[in-house]
Specification:
By secondary structure, the chain is an alpha+beta fold. The protein has six helices and five strands, in the order ββαβββααααα. Strands 1, 2, 3, 4 and 5 form a five-stranded antiparallel β-sheet that branches. The longest helix is centred in the C-terminal third of the chain and has 14 residues. The chain is globular. The N and C termini lie far apart (44 Å).
């Protein structure tokens, strides 16, 4: 039996005063499959994604799950350092708003290299090579990669 890439059961997110924004969400994504979370603006799609990555501010949101695992690794009891390793190696996110996702001061290549170096023990040169390979796989050539994203 395959271990799911993502297994979320009973996700609940409440804000201010215990008001549920998300309640009873179950998501199971099998390896190699793509799943779209769709809904109108304000329906909780981003909240679900942020909760699955444990990126919601715990001072503002109360989040609970019956299960939350990525590639078979239970995330509910991990420390911030352990979560950073999981986020960099097993899962990542690119949010829809390019102004919030990409810094206009740095090239796209610089930002991919930075992410690789935070999460993997790579030299600057090796991280640049890896970043160029990844960007090439996405159809982004070197000339485009060294430009600023905006």
């Amino acid at each position: 039996m395959n271990v799911p890439a993502l297994d979320v059961r009973g996700l609940r997110v409440a804000f201010g005063g215990g008001i549920d924004l998300v309640s009873g969400v179950d998501i199971r994504v099998e390896p190699g499959r793509f799943v779209a979370l769709v809904g109108p603006s304000g329906s909780g799609k981003s909240t679900v994604a942020l909760a699955c990555l444990r990126l919601l501010d715990e001072r503002l949101a109360m989040t609970s799950w019956d299960a939350l695992a990525i590639a078979g690794r239970e995330l509910t009891a991990l420390t911030p350092t352990e979560l950073r390793r999981v986020r960099g190696r097993l899962v990542g996110s690119v949010f829809q708003d390019p102004h919030g996702s990409l810094n206009p001061v740095f090239s796209a290549l610089f930002q991919v290299v930075e992410a690789l170096r935070v999460h993997q023990p790579l030299s600057q040169r090796d991280a640049e090579r890896r970043a160029l390979t990844l960007l090439d796989e996405l159809g982004v050539d070197r000339e485009t990669a060294v430009r600023h994203p905006h």
